[in-house]
Amino acid sequence: MMPWLMSLLGLVILLLAGDALVKGAVNLSLRLGVPALIVSLTIVAFGTSAPELLISIQAVLDDAPGIALGNVVGSNTANILLVLGIPALLATMHTSECETRKTYNFMIAASLLFIALAFRGVFDWLAGLVLLGGLAYVLFDAFRDAHAHRKAEADEEEPEGADPNMPGWQIAVFLLLGLIGLPLGATLLVENATIIAQTYGVSDTVIGLTLVAVGTSLPELATTVMAALRRQADVALGNVIGSNMFNLLAIIGIASLVGPIGVDPAFLTFDLWVMLGASLLLIPFVFLKMDITRLWGIALSALYAVYIFLVLI
Asked: Where is the Sodium/calcium exchanger membrane region domain positioned along the sequence (predicted)?
């Protein structure tokens, strides 16, 4: 039981530390005069993916590439089937009102690029630079669109985690907690997840695709459930698409610069195609303006249950 408890503890520390780092970094940046728009597009985006990033880097350092790749591929599959499926069981998400075509096209392009690079057999520094180049283009395009959209507005929206009244000492505490907690949580989770894999005779790839992937998708699930209950479907769908794109380009892009990440053959024959297939399931909601009804919620959740069953057997 101890490895399971330590894995859970590592996950909790990761989630709390990631949240603390976002709050500290956002408020420090605003205090230093960095525009809220730039903070939203960079610091918040990187900060909310910090747990996944630290897990992947730690997995590379611990020679557990299956956890690094499984974390990203499994999280992307879970984000679509589970993170959109479960909230739809609670309330219909009116995605027909959302305009996410451009971001969705970027996500599909990122998925295809990721799969193409995976067939090289390893994500090395060259693949990492290619992925980070794609990320730089996406961020530049997002900044350009956001700047054009808000150019006529006098006030900028406050980014997530912003608090104009936060004192300096509290900013410092948040930053310290985030910087200490993230590597600590990542180390606990990866090391104990590896022990669990060895104990039960399964590969680190399976642990990455299931235990680690679902755990790191919990923040997105919580955000999407609240968005669905508040009838904010654009937040729910945009959160999933943006998170998936960032996972592919940023997390593996940075982690592969730390060390080469070998690709398990199982990824090439099954898991990558499930991830792409799940991504294509969003076409009716993005292009045909269909709502994600409870029936869709049942279908998506059931597909995820089948996927987990197939991975485990």
From this structure: 4-136, 172-312
